[in-house]
């Protein structure tokens, strides 16, 4: 089994040549993130992930987190690795400087997250959830709450968790029953239980700051009556040190398909009637505060999918080069050929390579849009990037996570029978990746969000403007044989996406069920269109560098070929989705529920 190698050259190309991180680093807020700093961060992050985190991924899979009498015990080596991770500053890359963070762009931090995800996905979830909790406290917390929690969370001294799901509610958060009773000192007493709480308890940090959704007395029904509370594992003393243990604990761990080293907890609050919580934001406005954390997590889950796809690519490529079987058509060497010389293996490898690169560029563009949407000084430009981020977030989450699973499956197929054997390691990537399309809002929910909400924002201004930008770029492509199919298929993808989006908008008011019936294929079509656009940008950047005499010829020529493969092999099947998107819902419900089987 090959070890993970961080794709630092690839990531530098995406950030600098494809999505244009220079637009972010030109802002006064981020102008210290020079090219040298970007290179150093990526090189050092890659080295840490290769040397420290990647070897632990197998250990964590074989000996997952366990529940002891005093709480969850992390997998062997994880506690020391997390201490080193925090000490080296990886928890604080994009944290605000006023709370001890490095203040670097989210775009750069997202590149680091991919390395962490690819090297050890189970490990990465702890810091991902902490980052999301930091975002929620920063956006909605009081000054006192920010001063109490943020510095220690950004430093990695404390962790965070997100507590939404309950057994009877599932995705229907509005059905939750956890209660929050106010007391005279301004705090609340929390009572109830939550399931599927990733890293809900562990021994890697001295405290865990849970963000818990609950209902106050006489609150409105549904999501309108939900509030968000800070519930520390250990109450915080006046000097900022951890104090008494709060009445919040993990009562059991789920036994899962994958990510065994990530403890998925059943959490109990107030079993002894004394779980202390503090309102975060306004009463009955908890969903808005929680969505700050969830949107951060949705992008990061997409990046996790890309990390799984990258790991699958590396393992499949290494195996295909080493494994000899059969005689390939056109072979000139005696004896069995390496399976990389067989056409169908090449098909699978190029599919993994091209879709991984497209999904990576999409998620990095999403992060760039969040940076510029949050910090650009021009309000009109800021608004445009916020709208773009809103469009890209469901695509990042769904397309990124789907590509992770699909490519892990293809990589397993390339391994043949050995892929079904645990010792080769690809089965672990397949098992780990399968959670990504499910959590932080299933991919069906992401599709419903895109088609049902995001398209209609500002009367469709954001998606129309984005497709116009893509179309204009496609028109600027050379008409040479090298780029002709790229331009032609990109134009076809833009046209199909535009037609489907218009069809959806005309039916949102009177035929929403048909909109939702076609929402998942629409998300895939739109994602592939964006992917083709970004791959075309990569091809043009590579061609321009080659014409300037760049010596990295093999790498750059591969960029052009991979973009052409994506356009000619990934786009045509996506174009076929248009008919399904615009068919409506009649056949979905033509068989009654009682007679489905």
How are the elements arranged and paired?
Elements: H1 8-18, H2 22-25, H3 35-62, E1 66-68, E2 71-73, H4 78-87, H5 106-119, H6 121-140, H7 143-155, E3 158-163, E4 179-182, E5 188-198, E6 207-215, E7 226-232, E8 234-236, E9 242-245, E10 248-253, E11 264-269, E12 276-280, H8 286-322, H9 343-375, H10 379-414, H11 426-433, H12 443-454, H13 461-476, H14 481-507, H15 512-517, H16 519-547, H17 553-575, H18 577-581
Parallel strand pairs: 3-6
Antiparallel strand pairs: 1-2, 4-5, 5-11, 5-12, 6-7, 7-12, 8-9, 10-11
Helix pairs in contact: 1-16, 3-5, 5-6, 5-8, 5-9, 6-7, 6-8, 8-9, 8-10, 8-11, 9-10, 9-16, 9-17, 10-11, 10-12, 10-16, 12-16, 13-14, 14-16, 14-17, 16-17
What is the correct CATH architecture of the largest domain? Beta Barrel
Mean pLDDT across all amino acids: 96
Principal-axis shape equals globular
Topology as a string of helices (H) and strands (E): HHHEEHHHHEEEEEEEEEEHHHHHHHHHHH
Q: What structural class do the secondary elements suggest? A: alpha+beta
Number of beta strands: 12
Proportion of helical residues: 55-70%
Number of domains: 3
Distance between the termini: 43 Å
Mind telling me the C-alpha Rg?
A: 24 Å
Stated plainly, the CATH topology of the largest domain is called: Butyryl-CoA Dehydrogenase, subunit A, domain 2
What oligomeric assembly is this protein in? single chain
Main β sheet profile = 8 strands, mixed
Low-confidence stretches: none
Number of helix segments? 18
Into which percentage range does the β-strand content fall? 5-15%
CATH class category label of the largest domain: Mainly Beta
């Amino acid at each position: 089994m090959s070890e993970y190698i961080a794709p630092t050259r690839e990531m530098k190309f995406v950030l600098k040549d494809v999505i244009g991180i220079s637009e972010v680093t030109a802002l006064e807020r981020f102008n210290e993130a020079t090219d040298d700093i970007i290179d150093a961060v990526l090189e050092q992050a890659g080295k840490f992930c290769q040397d420290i985190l990647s070897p632990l991924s197998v250990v964590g899979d074989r000996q997952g987190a366990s529940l002891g009498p005093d709480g969850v015990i992390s997998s062997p080596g994880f506690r020391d690795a997390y201490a080193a991770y925090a000490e080296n500053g990886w928890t604080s890359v994009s944290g605000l400087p006023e709370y001890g963070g490095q203040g670097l762009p989210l775009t750069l931090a997202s590149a680091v997250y991919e390395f962490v995800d690819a090297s050890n996905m189970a490990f990465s979830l702890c810091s991902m959830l902490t980052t999301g909790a930091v975002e929620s406290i920063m956006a909605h917390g009081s000054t006192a709450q920010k001063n109490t929690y943020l510095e220690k969370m950004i430093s990695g001294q404390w962790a965070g968790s997100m507590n939404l799901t309950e057994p009877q509610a599932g995705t229907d958060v509005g059905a939750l029953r956890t209660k929050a009773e106010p007391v005279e000192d301004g705090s609340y007493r929390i009572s109830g239980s939550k399931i599927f709480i990733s890293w809900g308890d562990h021994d890697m940090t001295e405290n865990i700051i849970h963000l818990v959704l609950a209902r106050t007395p006489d609150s409105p029904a549904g999501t309108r009556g939900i509030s968000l509370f800070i519930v520390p594992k250990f109450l915080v003393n006046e000097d900022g040190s951890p104090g008494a243990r709060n009445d919040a604990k993990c009562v059991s761990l789920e036994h899962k398909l994958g990510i065994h080293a990530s403890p998925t907890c059943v959490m109990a609050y107030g079993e002894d009637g004394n779980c202390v919580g503090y309102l975060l934001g306004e009463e009955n406005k908890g969903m808005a505060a929680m969505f700050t954390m969830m949107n951060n997590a949705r992008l990061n889950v997409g990046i996790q999918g890309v990390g799984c796809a990258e790991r699958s690519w590396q393992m499949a490529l290494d195996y295909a080069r080493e494994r000899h079987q059969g005689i390939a058509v056109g072979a000139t060497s005696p004896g069995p050929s390496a399976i990389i010389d067989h056409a169908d293996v090449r098909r699978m490898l190029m599919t993994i390579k091209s879709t991984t690169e497209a999904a990576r560029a999409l998620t990095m563009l999403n992060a760039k849009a969040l940076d510029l949407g949050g910090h650009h000084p021009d309000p009109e430009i800021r608004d445009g990037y916020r709208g773009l981020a809103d469009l890209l977030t469901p695509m990042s989450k769904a397309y990124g996570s789907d590509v992770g699973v699909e490519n892990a499956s293809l990589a397993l197929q390339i391994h043949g029978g050995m892929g079904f054997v645990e010792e080769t390691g690809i089965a672990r990537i397949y098992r780990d990746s399968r959670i990504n399309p499910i959590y932080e809002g299933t991919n069906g929910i992401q599709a419903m969000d895109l088609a049902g909400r995001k398209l209609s924002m500002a009367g469709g201004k954001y998606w129309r403007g984005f497709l116009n930008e893509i179309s204009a770029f496609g028109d600027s492509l050379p008409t040479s044989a090298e780029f002709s199919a790229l331009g032609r298929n990109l134009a076809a993808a833009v046209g199909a996406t535009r037609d489907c989006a218009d069809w959806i908008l005309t039916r949102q008011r009177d035929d929403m069920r048909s909109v939702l019936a076609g929402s998942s294929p629409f998300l895939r079509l739109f994602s592939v269109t964006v992917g083709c656009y970004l791959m075309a940008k990569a091809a043009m950047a590579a061609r321009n560098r080659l014409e300037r005499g760049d010596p990295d010829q093999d790498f750059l020529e591969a960029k052009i070929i991979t973009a052409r493969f994506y356009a000619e092999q990934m786009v045509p099947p996506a174009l076929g989705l248009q008919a399904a998107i615009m068919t409506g819902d009649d056949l979905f419900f033509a068989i009654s529920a009682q007679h489905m089987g």
